[in-house]
Design brief:
Helices cover 3% and strands 63% of the residues. By secondary structure, it is an all-beta fold. The longest helix has 8 residues, at 6-13.
């Protein structure tokens, strides 16, 4: 799990910097070997270390080329021209991309697909237009991903972003400091099986969260993933999160950890009671003791029952 947290470690290294950038993307992707095009979309968090150096975490969905549904999370280091001036700025980034690839198996067996995981280098170029007297900006980004033994992809994305300049990145702005931030959160949402049919199910979770450091949360989460043949799994996950505050009310975080299953869905081959959980989430402090939360969670398995869990809920902070 240490490598899965590569991007999140980049956030921690940049924790002392004052500015944060959030960007949403949409665009097109080309698979060179297959001479094929599809859609692409993503979201990134970028933290300038100084005027010309930045660190980022990127979630990228690489669309649906033939026989593949691939997405992943990347951590990158950026060299940029002055990003805080009105007008154009430019950047080049490089890093590692952890991908999740649902691939079609052309076989006569009952197994029709597989969930592959792996690492690939990612290289990016970026052009950003900053508006005068505004925190909003527009961005064009090109990404090149070249997994070993798999098709390389090139994506061209158009983005809209917002720059936050506010409180310290840690939770020291909370009354009493970060050690006071404990919460119980009840959540519900939708699970999507990572197959070529993307079966869905209603899901629920109960999370206990505790701040264990200035930038670190620890969670224990009970999860039920529904009751369809593809999603019949429940258990308990424990994760460490790296947290950044965008302002007095909004926090973003990325977490990872083991997911221990009491029940697993039907699957050919190995059916393990151990899996991993990788998450990206946001929290909004509605009041002193009421917190709203939303998260995307990827269940990582070795028996081809990966799943996306989309959860929203309300928590009580104490």
């Amino acid at each position: 799990m240490q490598r899965i947290l590569l991007g999140a470690v980049a956030l921690a290294a940049a924790a002392i910097a004052p500015a944060q950038e959030l960007t949403g993307y949409a665009g097109t992707l080309r698979v060179k070997e297959a001479d094929e095009q599809t859609f692409s979309a993503g979201a990134s968090y970028t933290h300038p270390v100084n005027e010309h150096l930045a660190l980022s975490v990127l979630y990228l969905n690489e669309g649906h080329p033939t026989d593949h549904h691939r997405d992943g999370v990347a951590g990158q280091v950026w060299v940029r021209t002055g990003p805080n001036q009105p007008g154009w700025s430019f950047g080049a980034g490089a890093g590692q991309y952890f991908y999740f690839d649902t691939s079609q198996l052309h076989s006569d067996s009952t197994t029709k697909y597989t969930n592959d995981h792996g690492w690939a280098p990612i290289y990016s170029l970026q052009a950003t237009y900053h508006y005068a007297d505004s925190r909003w900006y527009n961005q064009v980004q090109i990404n090149r991903i070249s997994p070993s033994g798999k098709d390389a992809t090139t994506s061209v994305l158009l983005g809209v972003g917002y720059q936050f300049n506010g409180v310290k990145g840690d939770k020291l702005h909370l009354e009493g400091g970060p050690t006071t931030d404990e919460a119980l959160t009840l959540m519900a949402g939708q699970g999507i099986n990572n197959s070529l049919s993307s079966e869905t199910s209603a899901i629920a979770a109960l999370e206990y969260r505790r701040a264990v450091g200035r930038y670190v949360d620890w969670t224990v989460t009970a999860i039920t993933e529904g009751n369809t043949p593809q999603s019949k799994r429940n258990g308990v996950a424990t994760q460490l999160w790296l947290i950044r505050s965008l302002n007095q009310k909004v926090e973003l975080g990325m977490g990872a950890g083991p997911y221990f299953n009491a029940k697993v869905p039907d699957a050919d081959g190995q059916r393990s009671h151990k899996a991993g959980l990788v998450s990206i989430g946001g929290r909004y402090h509605l009041a002193k003791r009421v917190v709203a939360q939303a998260s995307w969670n990827r269940v990582v398995t070795d028996y081809h029952r990966d799943a996306d869990l989309f959860l929203i809920g309300l928590g009580y902070s104490f």
